[in-house]
Amino acid sequence: MSILKIARMGHPVLAAPAAPVADPTAPAVRRLLADMVETLRDIGGVGLAAPQVHEPWRVVIYEVPAARNDGEGLPLRALINPVLEPLDPDGAALVEDWEACLSLPGLTGRVPRHAAVRFRGLDAAGRAVDGEARGFHARVLQHECDHLDGVLYPMRMRDLSAFGFVEAMRARPASTGDAAARAG
Question: Does the annotation list 145 as a binding residue?
Answer without folding.
Answer: no
